[in-house]
Fold these 2 entries.
Entry 1:
Amino acid sequence: MAGITNAPFRRICRKYGAGLFVSEMITARPLVEGNAKTLKLAAFDPDESPRSLQLYGVDPHYVGEAVSRLVGQSGVDHIDMNFGCPVPKVTRRGGGSALPLRRRLLQKILAAAVRHAQGVPITIKFRIGIDDNLTTFLETGKIAQEEGCAAVALHARTAAQFYEGAARWEAIAQLKDHVTHIPVLGNGDIWEAHDAARMIASTRCDGVVIGRGCLGRPWLFAELAALFAGTQAPDHPNFGQVAEVMMDHARSLIAWFGSEAAAMANFRKHAAWYTKGFRHSNAMRTALMTIRSIEDLRSILDAADASEAFPQAALRAVRGKSGRAQRVALPENYLAHLDDDEPLADDQDDDAQDGG
Ligand SMILES: Cc1cc2nc3c(=O)[nH]c(=O)nc-3n(C[C@H](O)[C@H](O)[C@H](O)COP(=O)(O)O)c2cc1C
């Protein structure tokens, strides 16, 4: 998740038992051209394993080059490709969730990725389609399977839905019927571990992808790990325990950003998610939005009641992104030339880095 799953956050997810913790989305061309910001986002902790990276690209040439570099120099163990971004400035240029409409271009991109991956698994993540009249997920899944992808993941919403309404898990079941040789992973609205059990039971998907459910709740992975192992789930943390996770997260961000101010600016949104639903959390959040140092954070957390139990009502609170269905912007005449296989969008900048 863009802006979230940097190395410090991945370390916390790993500590709680996440099986695979994917990097922020990395755009192919700036990676190939050695853009410093992109290289930083694409870096791993020395002891991080597995090394899993999400790649965004619209041009088979740059995707192939990026994959070569990631497999060779960065030693990645897994590359996920994102074709689900619904943001207008991306789809308007034929990128993100608009790209699967051009199936021949999609094919070329995936073929280039798999060819350069030297056996490192390539997976792809996508949405149901543009809207209910332009669905692409079944064909996209088939193409991924034919081009040698190792698994597919469906965010069960259309781009037009953006983040609105419930994810349509029935589409995951349909995809599972259609893509029969590689694993199908389901994504959308897993807030608690039992949601994952329900998704698997109702769709027969082979695994689940966690999005907003882990924002401010990285221990969700411990609950999921217990569910899959058939063991007793750990208790939800009380406020004191949440505060310790927050301090740990904030300290790692300072080390990673190399700047306390930048780290605390990044941490503010996490602070709001971690504290959501606790007593006095509105007042506490107002204070948290102004933190500039780890001492600011400590003193705000110390003022709260450490023994307060985790608020049940907050478990399913939507966070990170919500609502606002949209009309999806496509390039002019895009639908009249769906057989074109030349890249339209420019993946030179990092504009695409806000979502899936
Ligand atoms: C802040 C934020 C950033 C995201 N960035 C990405 C991204 O870079 N790549 C991606 O594939 N999905 C991204 N997503 C989408 C999630 O991975 C997931 O598909 C989506 O939130 C639906 O799952 P959920 O309903 O369980 O949250 C992002 C979501 C959020 C909330």
Entry 2:
Amino acid sequence: MIRAARPADKQSILDLMVAAGLFVREALPPIEAIFDESFSEGVRAERRWIVCEHDGQLAGAAYYAHETVSDRVWNLFMIAVLPDTQGRGIGQEIVRHVEVELTSQGERILIVETSSLEDFARTRKFYIELGFVEEARIRRYYGDGNDKIVFYKALSVVPLDAHKS
Ligand SMILES: CC(C)(COP(=O)(O)OP(=O)(O)OC[C@H]1O[C@@H](n2cnc3c(N)ncnc32)[C@H](O)[C@@H]1OP(=O)(O)O)[C@@H](O)C(=O)NCCC(=O)NCCS
């Protein structure tokens, strides 16, 4: 079951991100700050956390937010599934949930960023299988030999150049 995260989910989500290998514990304070800020009035609608409960435990979580200087572009900044439950469709269910929600609200584009390292080959395959395409690559972004790859998905059925004359 997928539901909006609550403030009380914070520790479970942070533990999940560490368990999934997204972050080391030392890197958590800024993530914790982002989580806390997301529940303040005024930004709540544009910064969203969701969790997926599976067999009574919090098995997956994601954070996605509106790209401020854009026309209805959203960024799936974080997604993680507990290692023991990976490969069972939970990640896909989470991404589909995000896509359906944003599409129904008239949002246009969903992007997601990941690393070019071999360690992230399955993550890249995951996005490609979900219909994302590699849109941009920023060389050496995360370090020498570690590019940032931006994957892209149009949420709207309206062609992006439909308004050009
Ligand atoms: C990437 C991730 C969110 C995918 O969620 P998931 O529930 O494991 O994925 P699903 O079961 O819905 O989809 C399975 C597909 O995802 C891909 N995949 C990516 N990482 C995987 C993993 N560790 N285990 C199994 N499949 C994985 C494969 O393409 C797989 O398809 P296949 O079975 O044909 O090989 C999850 O594996 C994860 O948390 N990984 C570590 C953190 C991470 O890399 N997050 C993304 C950062 S940009």
